[in-house]
Design a protein that fits this description.
There is one protein chain. By secondary structure, the chain is mainly beta. It has 3 domains: 78 residues, no CATH class; 103 residues, no CATH class; 105 residues, no CATH class. Helix content is 3%, strand content 35%. The strands form 6 sheets. A 4-stranded antiparallel beta sheet has the order 5-6-7-8, with no helix packed on it. A 4-stranded antiparallel beta sheet has the order 9-10-11-12, with no helix packed on it. The protein starts with a strand and ends in an 11-residue tail after the last strand.
Amino acid sequence: VDYITAITDDVASTIYGMRTTVAAFANNEPVTGANPSTDPSPYYSAASGAVSFTTSAAEEAPPHWYDWTPYGNDTDNFGDMPSSAYLVARYRGRLVLSGHPNYPHQWYMAKVSNPFDWKYGSTDPLSAVAGNNVDAGEIGDIVRALIPYGDDFLVFGCADSIHILDGDPAFGGSIDELSNITGMFGPWAWCRDEDGNLYFWGSGGLYKMAGGRSKPLNISQGHLPKWVDDWAVAPATHRVVLTYDPSRNGIIISRTTLDDGTNLNYWYDLKTEGFYPETYPTNCGIFSS
């Protein structure tokens, strides 16, 4: 079982999971099973015995998705998840969220290995954590991109600054500012090359952060000094996407109009360090990569 909408006997529940049998579950079918000791729920363990219930509906065909509600509707044990977020990443075994419209500077991390546990404030270093209840702290800027580097560090690309989280925020991690004058355009406006260097479209054009953790270096200003003015990128109108192409050893920087797919693009060649315009049909505008 992956997810369940209620955990008490007196409330109807929808159960999400992976079926291990050939036959599909039917309506009014008795189901029994034992809970393994590794079950993430605090209610069940191998010692709690078997679980049994009778289905009230037939199994639904995929695709499946979860309602954005607390696990089992139990906030006492699983906490309250953020009510809204448009930035998602995975870092050090945690689900990471940010981009709440009302709290754009805030970030949230679920418990390690349990994306449904959002109970903050525990002394357990594996517990859920948020920027407003940990020493690492909130970001003093609007978060626009979450960029994890494995389990080593996480880059926060913000509207007017770049920050980096080292380690786990619930276990001695810290957040440091890499730049307070350069921002990142959005959640798709970055990519990495095969050497781990980070590239992003920012307030002055194309930037590079060597190894993902050095100060941003503008690599387009000397070649295309009017690039930012020429593109006149507007967040409500355009999407900027960076795409690393290992076969051609370079990066596509694209500005696509959200309404109709019209686009402007540059190819940045990592070998020659030159910029070359590219054009694509309207129905091939790049919206993600």
